[in-house]
Amino acid sequence: MRPPPARWALPLLAMLAWSGTALAQGLSGTVRSAEEGPMGGVLVNARAAGSTITVTVVTDAEGRFAFPAGRLPAGPTELSVRAAGWDLAGPEKVELTAAPVTAALILNPATEPAMQLSNAEWIASLPGGDADNHFLQNCTNCHTLKQPLFSDHDAKEFVEVQLRMASYAQASSLLRPQVLLQDRVANQSAAAQAARRKVFERQAAYLAQHNLWQKEGFDFRLTPFPRPSGRATRMVVTEYDLPETTRQPHDVIVTADGMVWYNSFTEQVLGRLDPKTGETREWMVPTLKPDSPKGSLALRADRDGNLWMGLSYQGGVARFDPRTETFRMYPLPARLNRDSTQTTEV
């Protein structure tokens, strides 16, 4: 199970042209704060009005940033930043033209710094050692640590929450929980299930001690990681929005024609993205087992250009021919196709 972010994007470190669009000569500038002066390692994002593409660069040690010439389209562009513990002083918009444009960005200490922490920063911030909070890494396979830590569950409620989550298929998200048809522990002994509950109780006690149950703020110090420096700042990242926030791309591949193909871990969806324009097109994958969890895992292309997908709990494999835009489905034989059967790889 994975969380739905505000948008799902596909990061590509590639120099791409904006097809059929006037290009800006360049955008550069500085990032500063009253507390630090010039700020290095700040991610600066640029997004043209109405676009589904975001381009990101990073400030150097002197707080300077520069987008490559011809990388952004001309026109109104919104700027945002990513630096844990800091907020942009206000909405920043620039008008990009054929002439170079500069922007001076000012950051203020974040009003809600906890909302900006990554999962790794939460684990580094929480009290106790690895033996106490190692289990939190398992939580992040499905959702961010904001879900349990910003909650007000007590220990008893957390046990029930864990039991409920354990009934979901891996192919679930916060927007699309999918219940398994067969319990994962249906074949376990009573002793094994009792031991499992003890683990849940221990984890529940830890979470209830450190979340917002019976308190309004966190009683431990938030410790963001150092911002990027040196070679880590010399990069350009291009992100592409997908059509729906429920999309969970598990595999992303680039075919010989330069098109980007993706599947959805939680849905019967196959999608194609044009990295030059950001345009997407999607096809619904036929369902083999309507009552079973939906979604696919592996996505591969064969030498003939066909796309193959492992359909997980759907119990089969799909082949898509991009030329005819048709699927051919290959369900498993009935003797192998149980409620717990998964076909993940192809």
TrEMBL record:
Higher taxonomy: Bacteria, Pseudomonadati, Pseudomonadota, Alphaproteobacteria, Acetobacterales
Superkingdom per UniProt: Bacteria
Name of the protein described by the UniProt record: Carboxypeptidase regulatory-like domain-containing protein
Native species: Dankookia rubra
Residues making up the signal peptide according to the UniProt record: 1-24
Entry-linked InterPro entries: CarboxyPept-like_regulatory, Vgb, WD40/YVTN_repeat-like_dom_sf
The entry's keywords: Signal
